[in-house]
Design a protein that fits this description.
By secondary structure, the protein is an alpha/beta fold. Helices cover 58% and strands 12% of the residues. It is built from 18 helices and nine strands. The chain has a nine-stranded mixed β-sheet with strand order 1-9-8-7-6-5-2-3-4, with helices on both faces. Helix 4 packs across helix 5, helix 10 runs parallel beside helix 11 and helix 10 packs antiparallel against helix 15. It is globular, with a radius of gyration of 22 Å.
Length: 334
């Protein structure tokens, strides 16, 4: 079993003694900034001129600087901007401001692992990656708990990178839940694989295909929506609470029998072979090169698919049904 650290393993004084620049104020950036500040750390937010997030951060009591200014002021820089923009931002504004003994931090290993960012040899390079979205990092912190984190050290110039990472995890609440030691390679490759094969790509494709199969067979779109998308949360909650065995214990015998006898007809040996190909593309860097090349062109395929999928029939019927559900507040992507 991997090494897991908790609050008693961290030294809060370390993070409280640092000047921290959080670059970016999106999902993770707002959570890290606020949690660190409320933990007693000295924090500024690095945002480019004209950023719509500047007013939000200022209203909550955070100090905002331009990225280069923030990096120059800080001795610890946490990079929390999108992967496809991070390399250019680092080259232009962050890297030139780093001094010997500084710490360069990440919440995802993409740019370090694939070489888009190469830090000076005299700075620490480490990662503290919450295993949950930023709004949960923030909410659980305010509730007195936290989201588990991954900790990895890529470069330990000072000999202090590991304890600094643990202290940072303490500052954002992650040490309350547990901090698993890993590597930049493992975090990056497993994270991309999970997103593509299960959490985003795989689940999205299964939902749409199952919905289309039912509707094409003549069933009501509303029934198909409930069965293929809405009820998924109930199953995921059971998986989250107790794994596959608890989920199977909680469903009917009929459902469990169908699970064992039909599931492998959907995820076949051919499907697993394709998963292996996806992993090969991640490990070789082919996916990273493809995505960064797309991003440099303005991500036309991403934007095309985003628009097309928002108009998929399951999204249309879903909007109507969620509007009739008094137990939830419907969300709409901008």
């Amino acid at each position: 079993m991997g090494k897991i650290y908790y609050e008693h393993d961290a030294d809060p004084a370390l993070i409280k003694s640092r000047r921290i620049a959080v670059i970016g104020y999106g999902s993770q950036g707002h959570a890290h900034s606020l949690n660190l500040s409320e933990s007693g750390a000295d924090v500024v937010v690095g945002l480019r001129s004209g950023s719509s997030s500047a007013a939000k951060a200022t209203e909550l009591g955070l100090k905002v600087m331009a990225p280069a200014e923030a990096a120059r002021w800080a001795d610890t820089v946490m990079m929390l901007v999108p992967d496809q923009h991070m390399g250019d931002l680092y080259q232009q504004e962050i890297g030139p401001q780093l001094d010997e003994g500084d710490a360069l931090m990440f919440a995802h290993g993409f740019n370090i692992h694939y070489g888009a960012i190469v830090a000076p040899e005299d700075v620490d390079v480490l990662m503290v990656a919450p295993k949950g979205p930023g709004h949960l990092v923030r909410r659980t912190f305010t509730e007195g708990s936290g989201v588990p984190c991954l900790l990895a050290v890529h470069q330990d110039a000072t000999g202090n990178a590991h304890p600094l990472g643990l202290s940072y995890a303490w500052g954002i609440g992650g040490a309350r839940a547990g901090v698993l030691e890993t590597t930049f390679k493992e975090e990056t490759e497993t994270d991309l694989f999970g997103e593509q094969v299960i959490l985003c790509g795989g689940v999205s494709a299964l939902i749409k295909s199952a919905y289309e199969t039912l509707v094409d067979a003549g069933y009501q779109p509303e029934s198909a929506y409930f069965e293929t998308l809405h009820e998924l949360k109930l199953i995921v909650d059971l998986l989250y609470e107790g794994g596959l065995s608890w989920m199977r214990y909680s469903i009917s015998d009929t459902a469990e029998y169908g699970d064992y006898t039909r599931g492998q007809r959907i995820v076949t040996d051919e499907t697993k072979a394709e998963m292996r190909k996806v992993l090969d593309e991640i490990q070789s860097g082919a996916f990273a090169q493809e995505w960064l090349a797309q991003a440099r062109e303005g991500a036309p395929f991403l934007l095309e698919q985003r628009a097309a999928n928002r108009n998929h029939p399951i999204e249309k019927v879903g909007r109507q049904l969620r509007g009739l559900m008094p137990f939830l507040t419907p969300k709409e992507a901008p």
